[in-house]
């Protein structure tokens, strides 16, 4: 009889151990619309209230004891894997729209920098999202021009809602590299740029200066001023090559009454056909002349 009692006692102990109620507290949880979290949210089979998240908070942090105590009162074995602090983050995946919004942001960067090397940016809402956010449909994203040279920035996303269009602000973090150009050697004023004059290098997005030339070098550029070797090439250092360059020999025509005089001269300033520029004749006289072709001009004064 004592053997039978021992067997039953051992069986009860094994059963109790096998079916003991236990949960594990994590350091971080994602929550969506439901802000009243009961025990099933944490993995329990029976339901009882644990904590309510304030609707005005995007992130809410509490001591893990706030979660642990209600479970221990119900005789749960609690494993606390947090460091004593638990964070609840609302709309971690932005109601399933996280990747869609991130793709839209990345596309805006790719439009400006076709050569960009970047993964999907990280997206977070700047403020708590509306409770009916799941019903919103993304229309577009708007980024400020200054945001395209920053690793972190805010942006506007426009959504179609059941009633009207609504703008919501988010923050992005992006790690990206963009190709830029540096001068291989010294470049003097009025140098027509060639492929032998520059090299391509890759730099971090947030290291880009303003007016930077990226991805591909425009054609027919000419230096405005002296550029030192290894300088980063920016648009303000160049002008587009003119059709007629300074020093070009031309035929200038001067009308005097019924006569038209043909005079040999040189252009003193770069210009395009149709521009009025200063010219200097072979005998040293200065005139203003309208360029009518690459080698002809009409003296206007």
Strand content: 35-45%
Quickly count the domains. Answer: 4
List low-confidence stretches.
none
In whole angstroms, how far apart are the ends?
A: 131 Å
Widest sheet: strand order?
Answer: 17-18-19-20-21
Total helical segments: 3
The share of residues in helices is 10-25%
Order of helices and strands: HEEEEEHEEHEEEEEEEEEEEEEE
Please report the total strand number as a whole number.
Answer: 21
**Multimeric state:** single chain
Q: Describe the biggest sheet?
A: 5 strands, mixed, barrel
Walk me through the structure:
With 301 residues, the chain is mainly beta. The chain has four domains: 20-90, eubacterium ventriosum atcc fold (Sandwich); 94-174, no CATH class; 177-240, Alpha-Beta Complex (Type Iii Antifreeze Protein Isoform Hplc 12), CATH 3.90.1210; 249-299, SH3 type barrels, CATH 2.30.30.760. It contains three helices and 21 strands. The protein has helices at 2-18, 65-73, 98-112, and strands spanning 22-25, 28-31, 36-38, 49-52, 59-63, 77-80, 85-90, 117-118, 122-125, 137-142, 152-160, 165-173, 176-183, 198-204, 221-223, 238-240, 249-256, 259-267, 276-281, 286-291, 296-299. The strands form seven sheets. It has a five-stranded mixed beta barrel. A hairpin with an 8-residue loop joins β18 and β19 (276-281). The longest helix has 17 residues, at 2-18. It is elongated. The model has no long low-confidence stretch (mean pLDDT 89).
């Amino acid at each position: 009889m004592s053997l039978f009692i021992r067997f039953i006692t051992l069986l009860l102990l094994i059963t109790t151990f096998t079916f003991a109620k236990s949960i594990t507290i994590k350091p971080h949880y994602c929550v969506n619309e439901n802000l009243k979290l009961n025990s099933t949210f944490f993995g329990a089979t029976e339901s009882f209230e644990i904590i309510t998240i304030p609707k005005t908070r995007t992130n809410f942090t509490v001591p893990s004891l706030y979660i642990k105590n209600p479970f221990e009162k119900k005789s749960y074995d609690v494993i606390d894997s947090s460091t004593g602090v638990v964070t609840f983050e609302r709309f971690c995946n932005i109601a399933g729209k996280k990747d869609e919004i991130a793709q839209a942001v990345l596309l805006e960067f790719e439009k400006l920098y076709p050569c960009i090397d970047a993964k999907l940016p990280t997206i977070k809402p700047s403020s708590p999202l509306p409770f009916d956010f799941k019903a919103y449909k993304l229309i577009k994203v708007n980024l400020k021009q200054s945001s395209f040279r920053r690793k972190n920035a805010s942006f506007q996303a426009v959504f179609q809602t059941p009633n009207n269009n609504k703008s919501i602000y988010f923050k992005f973090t992006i790690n990206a590299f963009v190709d830029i150009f540096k001068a291989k050697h010294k470049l003097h004023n009025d140098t027509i740029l060639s492929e032998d004059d520059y090299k391509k290098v890759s730099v971090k997005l947030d290291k880009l200066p303003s007016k930077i030339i990226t991805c591909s070098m425009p054609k027919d550029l000419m230096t405005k001023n002296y550029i030192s070797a290894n300088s980063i090439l920016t648009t303000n250092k160049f002008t587009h090559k003119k059709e007629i360059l300074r020093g070009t020999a031309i035929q200038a025509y001067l009308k005097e009454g019924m006569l038209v005089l043909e005079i040999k001269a040189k252009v003193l300033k770069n210009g395009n056909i149709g521009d009025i520029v200063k010219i200097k004749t072979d005998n040293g006289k200065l005139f203003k002349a309208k360029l009518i072709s690459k080698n002809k001009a009409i003296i206007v004064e």
